[in-house]
Amino acid sequence: MNKLKSKKLRGLLLGAGFVAIAAFVFTGCPTQQNMLDRGDAAQKVYVAPGEHDEYYGFFSGGYSGQLSVWGLPSSRLLKVIPVFSQDPETGYGYSEETKPLFQTSYGFIPWDDSHHPHISQTNGDSDGRWIYINANNTPRIARIDLKTFETKEILELPNTGGNHASSFVTSNSEYVIGGTRFSIPYEQDLDVPIESYSDEFRGALTFIALDSETGQMDLEFQIVVPPYNYDLGRAGKGPSSDWVFFTTYNTEEAHTMLEVNASRNDKDFIAAVNWKKAAELVRNGHGKQMPGEYYHNYYPTNQGYAVSEVKNGVTVLDTRDIDEDFIYYLPTPKSPHGVDIDPTGEYIVGGGKLATVIPVHSFSNMIEAINNGRIVERIDGIPVLDYDATIIGEVENPGLGPLHTEFDGRGYAYTSVYISSEIVKWSLDTFEVVDRIDSYYSIGHLMITAGDNVNPDARYMVGLTKTAKDRYLPTGPKQNHPAQLYDISGDRMQLLLDFPTIGEPHYAQSIRADKIKPNVAQIYEMEDNDHPYAITRINENRVERNGNVVRVFMGATRSHFRPDNIEGIKLGDTVYIHLTNMEQEWDVVHGIAIKGMDNAEILVAPGQTKTIKWTPKRTGIYPFYCTAFCSALHQEMQGYIRVSAANSDVALTWKTGTN
Amino acid sequence: MKFITNIISIALLLFVLQACGGESADQSASNSNETQEQGLSAFELEHGIGPVSERLAVDAELDEEMINRGRNIYEMKCEMCHNMEGRMVGPALGDVMERRSPEFVMNMILNPGGMARNHPEGQKMLQEYMTVMPFQNVKEDEARDIVEFLRQQAENN
Questions:
Q1: From the CA of A539, how many Å to the nearest CA of chain B?
Q2: Domains in chain B, number
Q3: What is the pLDDT along chain B (157 residues), one digit of tens a residue?
Q4: Which CATH number belongs to the domain containing residue B146 in this structure?
Q5: B7 and chain A: CB distance < 8 Å anywhere?
């Protein structure tokens, strides 16, 4: 028996050794990829405890207004970054520092609908410095810093109704684009009959210049265009880098029952904009100033309060006034949704959601058509190019309702197909479908790991679907939106995982983790804390009164607040608690909440200062405590504030311990 | 024969494992330079465990510039938990340089988590003060400056 066992063991050992050496000889070190390809789906998504995923995934939150961060391929949720919606968990949008980010020309807006995250690019490749995301409802674009994973800036877009064709960046992050989904009168406050749509309503395509050092946004110009719905956009790549492309639908100019009335024309357009030429026209004085109030909210310093700058007026290029051509319409069937550019920059793929084919335009054909004057008509001065001159392929049998296309850089495209709920893989050479796989259920966007750039790292694909129905344990009539992870490294697509997400992810982006990981901040360095109400040494803790405004300069360390006993607050006072986390250790977070406070808690990261506003409504003793479990003595991290009547003579005092 | 095949098998496996195993070497390194050693050397027992692993040349005479820099860092990063006289969250530091070596104090500042886990003195302090001293993102030369400031405090005691 023993002999048999040892023989077996020896055989196994020898076998394992030979397999290992063979693998080593044939393929070099067994990379994670090779090892995974031999395993089943579970092994492919397994990332052992303590180990890190290879990719960051950034999924838009849709109607949550936020941006969720995932590790891929494990599909573990890493974080939800609050962007356009208030977040009581962190105090984002409740703290005094972050409130100005929510200011718009319509006032303080606590919610929005975030759609298309896009990572900043260098030489056509995602560089992992910032990620931009659009707000669809009250048109805005936000910038999130990928050092701290925090929203740092929000810019409002004037003259826009539904900023849907956004927030895609050009290949060297020269611009981030916006586009109006709902055309509106260009002067936003214009009070006109809706029936005047074709006369008074216009579309706006927005070009926002990005600072190459800080990523900060500056609305440079808008292009005023016919009143269609501008749906999605994409920047060109390589030879087409100087261009951006927008889809349009509703060339019928309907303003009611669009479901029927905007679906009549056989073809709508992809608008191709030469942004370099447009910018040059602006520089040479071809733009005109139009009214348009908008807010630009950002942090002027390292820490402290965001500021809201109110701007008025925007430079506009109007195709009706300018003789030179810088924008062209490419007829595209039929109510196209997505417009996607392949890694070589040559193929412009339209997702004709009502079309029976996937139309593929050629960029070089387009340039040739422009040079040869293959113009079939002009609309408001915009040349419409001959469909036969720009089209290079029509993918047959793509399924019902093709929407969006991504590319693997190996000559294949993957198109999401909504109505037939599938993804079709097709060849950019033959324009024939080579593989198809089901979605669960009704897919919108799809995303390829480290995709939408000149050099996609196409290992995995994520399908972002609209309904879960029976896929998970049921959680009521409304379920969370799902996503599916596919392996696309082989000839056939393989479903690996199906998982619920946050909000309703529309688009998502992914990037190799090593492009972000080394730059991620672990603390806010105390030495760099320039918050006007920070304390950077504990003996600066104090309470100051100025009329009815009381400011508490408070420090937090495991596990106490200083000061933690405060008296002399009176009814009618507005109290600001400026809490500085004086720790310098990664991920040691303190928070504060006061009984009866009509506000959210604030969470304060190491070395950070955050402010909460509190207006006590009743006299009495108010306990406050640390909301983040910070140490074994966390339960001891508490204090008391005494609130007295408005006319009381209780002196303003504060203390901690025996000091 | 058995022996030889065993050896070959193991050697093959080892070869591949060795050739390809270097990826995760630095994954357990943390920002606080914590160490995992259990058996401590005589130096470590007396001077602590952490980045300072040999005796430093410490002048008998105090350096004014170092004291000023050290005071600045101390006020920013240490004072919320320590008094010069009397225990607070952590022990009193007015006389710490009379009780501990400069190397010990520096290792305590630079590797507080490792000291609490793996050093008998660190473990003793954790028992007494019930909280692990946080790493406050202090650089090695800054820890030396703090030592100079604390030496001055000890002299004034």
A1: 8
A2: 1
A3: 455 555 555 554 444 444 444 444 343 434 444 444 458 999 999 999 999 999 999 999 999 999 999 999 999 999 999 999 999 999 999 999 999 999 999 999 999 999 999 999 999 999 999 889 999 999 999 999 999 999 999 998 7
A4: 1.10.760.10
A5: no
